[in-house]
From TrEMBL:
WD repeats lie at residues 370-411. InterPro entries: SOCS_box (IPR001496), SOCS_box-like_dom_sf (IPR036036), WD40/YVTN_repeat-like_dom_sf (IPR015943), WD40_rpt (IPR001680), WSB_SOCS-box_domain (IPR051983). It comes from the Eukaryota. The keyword Membrane does not apply. The lineage of its organism: Eukaryota, Metazoa, Spiralia, Lophotrochozoa, Mollusca. One of its GO terms (biological process) is intracellular signal transduction. SMART domains: SOCS. Pfam families: SOCS_box. Gene3D superfamilies: SOCS box, YVTN repeat-like/Quinoprotein amine dehydrogenase. Keywords: Ubl conjugation pathway, WD repeat. It comes from Mizuhopecten yessoensis. This is WD repeat and SOCS box-containing protein 1. Residues 409-445 form the SOCS box domain. The keyword rRNA-binding does not apply.
């Protein structure tokens, strides 16, 4: 028997290309990145501690830091952080420096100072990861206990859900579908270090709608030392879920059939392996077919999971250091790659040509690469316009970076319109269907 709860209000939109797919949208107008923060391309805009009221700690601590822009709001970022000590066997043990997984919200829209909101009631899992709910007013995360999903209102600091797993699985990662209707969860079971991919209806959070045994997909299982990290992501049309493990496996699963439709490193690019659990992403302009993948040999691939082939790959390795994060821009015009040595590179998804690159060390020479197998850059995210990037790094800081500005009249007009009209009202505008799709950033490819 399941437990239902009143989830946030969901308003969905459909495109003219593929009407069967839908996406939930915020009910507020677009908030641009403040003009006063604009800096020269490639330079540091500003830098904040993910948890600002913590005293400076010793450099040997490893800070697991995460950050995300709010949907349709380029002036506000939510952050979280936990501190760890790296053991001789490379395991991470929780440090007492801070209470793990506290959540903060940074607002850059103030004319004088950066506003910071601190959510004292929130306590994210030891390896914290925040997911913004599509309405922009809530965040979803795993709680401090092993089988706990929480949806928290950013405005009222209230919790909309709290449910323990009735099978006593340990939840490791949660992702919200773009439609707002489903949660995908990576859960570790007690059976020989196995993982299961759980799909929940977001109304019904105790009994899973689907349970996919990951060990049946190649060698997708954990280790005795529990050193691995798992990640799952939804396709833009909420039909597929990609499940990854830091050992190097990446599988794409259909929500409807519960079958693995593509084992990337068996069916598409054999003899390769995923660099980290965070080095893949769906192209937001494709419903579910196009996926970017960063491999251990430091190459970037754009693959078609339906045809099972490589669309393009980088001509040379992305650098001399491992790939830490791969992330598409919101409009799908470029793929961002963050390397272990704090280099950030932007590639074209059409031919994998290098569009732009910069090194964070040029502005922050005190940055040091993380020890052992642990990532230096834990997350890379982009503003709606693609003109700013935000990185979370293992020193406990969140940094804002200026990217090349887009001066095309079409893009400028798009965000001027969205600053006056909320996304839920765009479909009612007297505009051609394809133009509405452009304003809503809906997929234009299968």
């Amino acid at each position: 028997m399941g437990v239902s709860f009143n989830k946030p209000r969901i308003v969905t939109v459909r495109g003219s290309y593929y009407k069967e797919s839908e996406r939930a949208v915020p009910l507020y107008t677009y908030t641009p990145f403040p003009e006063r923060w604009n800096r020269p391309t490639g330079s540091l805009i500003t830098r904040v501690k993910a948890v600002p009221n913590v005293k400076e700690e010793e450099n040997d601590l490893y800070w697991w830091t995460d950050c995300e822009f709010l949907p349709n709001n380029d002036s506000t970022v939510v952050t979280t952080c936990s501190s760890f000590t790296i053991q001789p066997n490379q395991a991470l043990t929780v440090s007492r420096a801070i209470q793990p997984g506290k959540v903060c919200l940074f607002d850059l829209s103030s004319e004088k100072n950066i506003k910071c909101g601190y959510y004292r009631q929130a306590s994210v899992a030891s390896f914290p990861k925040l997911q913004t709910f599509p309405d922009g007013d809530h965040i979803v995360y795993l709680g401090s206990t092993s089988g706990d999903i929480k949806v928290m209102s950013l405005e009222r600091s209230t919790f909309h859900s709290r449910a323990q797993d009735i099978h006593f699985r340990a939840y490791k990662y949660v992702a919200v579908s773009p439609s707002g209707c489903y949660f995908a969860i990576m859960a570790r079971t007690s059976r020989q270090y196995q993982y299961e991919l759980l799909i929940y209806d977001s109304h019904f959070v105790t009994r899973a709608e689907s349970v996919i045994d990951c060990c049946k997909m190649n060698d997708f299982r954990g280790s005795r030392m529990n050193l691995e990290h798992t990640v799952c992501k939804w396709s833009p049309d909420s039909e597929y879920v990609a499940a990854a493990i830091s050992h190097g496996h990446l599988c794409i699963v259909s929500r409807r059939s519960q079958a693995c439709v593509c084992d990337v490193f068996t069916n598409v690019i054999p003899d390769r392996a995923l660099s980290r659990g965070t080095t893949f992403d769906f192209n937001p302009m494709s419903c579910h077919r196009m996926v970017s993948v960063g491999t251990k040999d430091r190459f970037l691939y754009i693959i078609d999971i339906q045809e099972g082939n490589v669309l393009c790959q980088t001509e040379h390795a992305c650098g001399d250091h491992a790939i830490d994060v791969v992330k598409f821009s919101c409009d799908g015009l470029f793929v961002g790659v963050a390397l272990h040595n704090f280099s950030v590179q932007l590639f074209s998804p059409v031919d994998c040509s290098l569009l732009y690159s910069f090194s964070m060390k040029d502005s922050l020479p005190s940055l040091h690469n993380s020890m052992g197998p642990h990532a230096s850059v834990l997350n890379l995210t982009f503003s709606s316009t693609g003109e700013q990037a935000v990185t979370s790094t293992a020193d406990g800081y969140v940094s804002f970076w200026q990217l090349p500005r887009k001066m095309e009249l079409q893009v400028i007009c798009k965000f001027k319109i969205l600053s006056c009209v909320s996304l839920d009202r765009v479909s009612r505008l007297p505009l051609p269907p394809r133009l509405k799709d452009f304003l809503l950033s809906l997929p234009t490819m299968l």
